[in-house]
Amino acid sequence: AAEAARGRSGRLASVDKANVLASSRLWRRVVTEVVAKEFPDVQLEHVLVDAMAMHLIRRPSAYDVVLSGNLFGDILTDEASMLAGSMGLLPSASLGNALNSYGHPRGLYEPIHGSAPDIAGQGIANPLAAILSAAMLLRHSLGLEDEAQVVERAVESVLADGLRTRDIAWGARRIVGTAEMGNAVVQRIMQ
Predict the structure, then answer these.
(1) Between 72 and which of 47, 68, 161, 183 could a Cys-Cys bridge form, CB atoms 3.0 to 4.6 Å apart?
(2) Judgement on whether residues 97 and 142 belong to the same structural domain of the protein
(3) Are 122 and 42 within one domain?
(4) What residues of the chain score a pLDDT lower than 50?
(5) What share of the chain is helix, strand, coil (3-state, %, to 5)?
(6) Are residues 57 and 91 both part of a single domain?
(7) Beta-bridge partner residues of 91
(8) What global pTM score does this model have?
């Protein structure tokens, strides 16, 4: 997260519940030490999770890179997905410290909504978060920035053309299913 902050705005917000949980006090201490030692150019802010939940709604643009453990991160990303309009639009990455054979962090990439078992097999899931998760993999674990941007631009192009899955269908010119949306993105990538 600090590496990402360094490459973006230089600001990192670390989320915890240090006023109540001993584990969060340890989290805060370790994050502070690591950022101070390894990323002295990154501006670190500690934010309590309940305050962050409010801030994400009131002033989301105040935060660029947010660091959190899984418990708080799952809750905050679901909340933040509504700023974009749907969980079907947001990718996620859990990056480790170990480097892969390309010299980049190993990671787990997935849509924030997980597998969406409640709509499995119906052809209505929004594939864009999964596609954007693949773009994150290209960028962060494979170092393929140009290729990641091609994927992201393809998604932007499909949305600009008015294609929408049911979860983001407000004002849509054309509502499509999972396969059609995915195929439309692939066609843009191939252009």
Answers:
(1) 68
(2) yes
(3) no
(4) none
(5) 55, 20, 30
(6) no
(7) 111
(8) 0.79
